Amino acid sequence: MSAASTQTHTIPAGVDLGRETAITGKVVTGDGEPVGGAFVRLLDGTGTFTAEIVASGSGDFRFFVAPGDWTVRALSPVGNGTASVKPTTSGIHTVDITLTA
InterPro entries in the record, alphabetically (predicted)? Predict the structure, then answer.
């Protein structure tokens, strides 16, 4: 059993997006259908594992990060997918991950 917590797409109250950087998105199939329960991993610019969460039932995920180069990888029985995101400022940065079998 994983210690990864399930995430939602909603940013918690009290988070100052003028000062915080968040990567959010949705895990989806090639047809755009959401995939809940996928393990979503965050890798830094060197490819080093940084964090892991479980996508919500609607496929949503969220990480709070520092600006920089990040890779987000989703692993699921439906398939796997990877996306890159490079936030340079604070705020919400959205990237969806499309799974392939």
Answer: CarboxyPept-like_regulatory, DUF1416
* DSSP state, residue 69: -
Q: Which amino acid is at 23?
A: I
Domain ranges of the chain: 21-98
Give the per-residue pLDDT at 1.
37
Is-above-0.70 flag for pTM? yes
Question: Which DSSP string do the residues of 72-87 spell out, in sequence order?
Answer: EEEEETTEEEEEEE--
Q: Each residue of 65-80: pLDDT tens digit?
A: 999 999 999 999 999 9
Interval 59-67 mean pLDDT: 94
Q: What is the CATH number of domain 21-98?
A: 2.60.40.1120
CB 42, CB 10: distance < 8 Å: no
CA distances from 61 to 9, 30, 68, 90, 96 (A): 6, 18, 18, 18, 9
Q: Are 70 and 86 in contact (CB under 8 A)?
A: yes
